[in-house]
Amino acid sequence: MVLVMNYDARFESGGYNLRVAKLPAYYDAFGTLFSLIGYFGLWDSIPSHLQIFNYYLFGHLFVQLVVFTLDMITLTSLCEGWAGNIQSQITPNRTLYGPSIKGLCQVARVSYLIGFMFDFGLHAYFTYVSVDYTRNMAMNPGILISFDGKSSPGSESVPVLNPNHGEPVNYMGPGIKRPTEQHGFRYGALPEETEDD
Known about the structure:
Number of strands: 0
Distance between the termini: 70 Å
Number of helices: 8
Mean pLDDT: 78
Largest sheet: none
Strand content: under 5%
Structural class: mainly alpha
C-alpha cells in the first residue's frame, strides 16, 4: 500500500521500465482483500475461497513475469546510453539512471536476473503449496494432511491422505441425511397423510 502512494525504487521489485514500474504495487494492494478471502476459506474449510486466493497468486506470478520481461528489455536496449541521452532529461528514470551513469548496466542485468529467479521461485513454491493444500482440502479428507509424506510425532496411527485414492466417502453414493432433511419438521418425521387415506 505504501508503494502505491510513495514511489521509492528501493522497495520496488523492478522499475526499470516506467510503463510497468508500479504495476506490482497496484496488484499487491489488492492482495489484502484476496488474502482475507483466502484466510477465511482456510479458517472455515471452504476450498472455493482458497481457490480465489490461488487465482490471485497465479496472477501475481504473471505480473512478476511481465514486469521482469519488460525491465530486461529496457535494461538491455536503453541502459548503456541512458545517462547521456536527452530522453533521460525529458522522462527521468532514476532506477535506470543509476547503473547507466556508473557503467554498471551488465552488473544490474545479472543482479536483477538472480534476484528475479529467487523471488519468482519462492513465490512459485508458495503458490504450489497453496494449490496443493486447496486440492487436498477439496477431497474432504477425514485423515491427516501431510506435505512431506511423514506423520508428525504422536500421529503414527492416523493414516495420511493418498491423493491417488482420494477420500472413500466420495465413492459411497449419497450421504446420510437427517430426518428433518428427508421428511421435514413434522412431529415424528412421519410421511404426510393424503386425502385418500
